């Protein structure tokens, strides 16, 4: 099911263009540079304690200094509206980067009466940036940053009883892990009927395995599981750039293939059109 929400993009709020493919566009020092920019902002005392103020400073950096792979204002509003509608007690994001989504969605969760927003980020430097900005925004009572590979963090949070159920999950991390991490959450009972999923970048750069899984019928998923193919990562569906973009720093990602998930769950799938922070249209 597709839903068209795309409007005219406001060019005055566009980020500087993303670097060309093959050129670093993250993890090259800009994340720490961002932290110094925000904390050295001339309006720092007005920003302190204000999630929207911190977000404005982050956007200012992305618009005037260097590109940041944030969810951005347009796509962010779609998820923020969803949070207001769902009113999740517990929300989880997979992939936090510099904390833009944690700031925006964590604030929305708190306003909706929610208790906890878990931001799972593998890179400890990025996680440190998230924690600094979350603290500056006054959201530490709601946002919990968890460092480590997503699957290991999900298992640990479940095993120690910290996370018992996910009401809303935002997927924006390593693209081949979308499906395997979703299946893990299903297997652990963290995702169950009523859970809402919001996945970024499923059209660009694309995530065919994830879309196929959430759109498959119970019969199709059961058949695949019985034939032993349910958990084989479909790496051929991803470009080499997408598969390997974190390899230099984090090493090769090892996806879990032993978890079959819950083939009895049925998802209602909907595509929503929007814009990247640079103004490029996406779904």
Give a verbal description of the structure:
This protein is of the alpha/beta class and 283 residues long. It has 13 helices and nine strands. It has helices at 30-39, 44-47, 51-64, 72-86, 100-111, 124-137, 150-159, 177-187, 202-206, 208-215, 218-226, 240-244, 247-250; strands spanning 2-3, 90-94, 116-121, 143-147, 168-171, 196-199, 271-272, 274-275, 281-282. The strands form three sheets. The chain has a five-stranded parallel beta sheet with strand order 4-3-2-5-6, with helices on both faces. A two-stranded parallel sheet has the order 1-7. It has a two-stranded antiparallel sheet with strand order 8-9. Helix 5 links the parallel strand 2 and strand 3 (116-121). The longest helix has 15 residues, at 72-86. It is globular, with a radius of gyration of 18 Å. The two termini are 12 Å apart.
């Amino acid at each position: 099911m597709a839903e068209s929400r795309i409007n005219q993009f406001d060019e005055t709020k566009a980020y500087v263009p993303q670097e060309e493919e093959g050129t670093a566009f993250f993890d090259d020092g800009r994340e720490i540079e961002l932290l110094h920019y925000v904390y050295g902002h001339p309006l720092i005392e007005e920003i302190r304690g204000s999630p929207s103020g911190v977000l404005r400073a982050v956007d200012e950096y992305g618009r005037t200094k260097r590109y940041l792979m944030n969810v951005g204002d347009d796509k962010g509003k779609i998820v923020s509206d969803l949070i207001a509608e769902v009113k999740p007690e517990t929300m989880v994001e997979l992939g936090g980067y510099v904390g833009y989504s944690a700031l925006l969605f964590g604030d929305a969760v708190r306003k909706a009466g929610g208790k906890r927003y878990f931001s799972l980020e593998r890179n400890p430097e990025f996680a440190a940036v998230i924690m600094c900005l979350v603290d500056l925004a006054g959201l530490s009572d709601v946002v919990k940053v968890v460092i480590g590979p997503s699957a290991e963090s999900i298992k640990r949070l479940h095993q120690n009883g910290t996370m018992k159920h996910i009401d809303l999950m935002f997927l924006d991390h390593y693209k081949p892990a979308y499906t395997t991490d979703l299946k893990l959450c299903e297997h652990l009972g963290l995702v169950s009927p009523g859970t809402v999923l919001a996945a970024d970048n499923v059209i660009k750069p694309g995530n065919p395995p994830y879309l196929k899984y959430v759109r498959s019928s119970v019969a199709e998923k059961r058949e695949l599981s019985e034939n032993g193919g349910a958990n084989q990562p479909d790496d051929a569906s991803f470009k080499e750039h997408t598969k390997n973009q974190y390899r230099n720093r984090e090493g090769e990602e090892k996806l879990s293939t032993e978890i079959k998930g819950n083939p009895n769950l049925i998802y209602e799938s909907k595509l929503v059109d929007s814009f990247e922070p640079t103004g490029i249209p996406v779904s």
